[in-house]
TrEMBL record:
It comes from Candidatus Portnoybacteria bacterium RBG_13_40_8. CDD domains: HDc (cd00077). One of its GO terms (molecular function) is hydrolase activity. NCBIfam families: HDIG. It comes from the Bacteria. Residues 21-111 form the HD domain. Keywords: Hydrolase. Pfam families: HD. This is Phosphohydrolase.
Length: 193
C-alpha cells in the first residue's frame, strides 16, 4: 500500500476531520523521526523506511470510529484491517502495540516511535490552540514543555508515554518535542493550524 492508498483508506474509515488531522500529524511526525534515525550510521533505516514509518502513523487509528466505545478493541481491529489489506507485519505489529491498554510492549524502533508520538501530537495541538494566534508557526518547544508539566492541561495526552521517548528511542524530551513540532509545522495548512 502506498501513501495515496493509505490516505484513501483513512478517508473511507474516518469521518471526523479532527481525527483525520491527528492521523496526518502522526504520519508526518513518524516520517521526521525516521529521517532523524536515518542520519545515524548505526541504524539501517533507508528511504523506504520513511514511507513505511509514515504509513504506520497515517493508519494507526484506522479503526478508531468503530472502536471508540470499546477501547479494548482499538488497535486490535486496526491490525486486522491492515493485515487483510496486505500491509507488512512490522506495520501491523506497530499499529497493534500503540494502544497501551493491551500491555503489549513495542519491540521495533518503529513501534516504539508510534507509541510515543501518538500522544505527543495531541499535546502539540492543544498547546497551539491556547496561543493567542492559534497558529502552530508561533509555537515553540519551550511552550510545549511548559504545558507538559500542567497535569490539568490536555489530559488525554499521556505524559508518561510521551516521556518514554528517552528510554525507548534514546531521544531526550526537548529534542523529541522539537522533532514533532517541526514536522507538524511543515503541514500547518493540512492541520488547520
Amino acid at each position: 500500500m502506498n501513501r495515496e492508498e493509505g490516505l484513501k483508506l483513512v478517508q473511507e474509515k474516518i469521518q471526523n476531520q479532527n481525527l483525520v488531522k491527528h492521523c496526518l500529524a502522526t504520519e508526518v511526525c513518524m516520517r521526521e523521526l525516521a529521517k532523524h534515525f536515518a542520519k545515524d550510521p548505526s541504524t539501517s533505516l533507508g528511504a523506504g523506511d520513511l514511507e513505511k514509518w509514515g504509513l504506520t502513523g497515517l493508519l494507526h487509528d484506522i479503526d478508531y470510529e468503530e472502536t471508540k466505545n470499546d477501547p479494548d478493541k482499538h488497535s486490535i481491529l486496526a491490525a486486522e484491517i491492515l493485515e487483510k489489506a496486505g500491509l507488512e507485519k512490522d506495520i501491523v505489529d506497530a499499529v497493534k502495540t500503540h494502544n497501551e491498554r493491551h500491555g503489549i510492549a513495542p519491540e521495533s524502533k518503529m513501534a516504539k516511535a508510534i507509541f510515543t508520538v501518538d500522544p505527543l501530537t495531541g499535546l502539540i495541538v492543544a498547546a497551539t490552540l491556547v496561543l493567542p494566534s492559534k497558529k502552530i508557526a508561533d509555537l515553540t518547544a519551550e511552550n510545549v514543555i511548559n504545558r507538559f508539566g500542567e497535569k490539568s492541561f490536555a489530559k488525554g495526552a499521556n505524559r508518561e508515554i510521551i516521556s518514554q521517548c528517552q528510554e525507548l528511542l534514546d531521544i531526550n524530551l526537548k529534542e523529541f518535542i522539537e522533532i514533532g513540532l517541526k514536522a507538524m509545522q511543515g503541514i500547518s495548512g493540512d492541520l488547520g493550524l
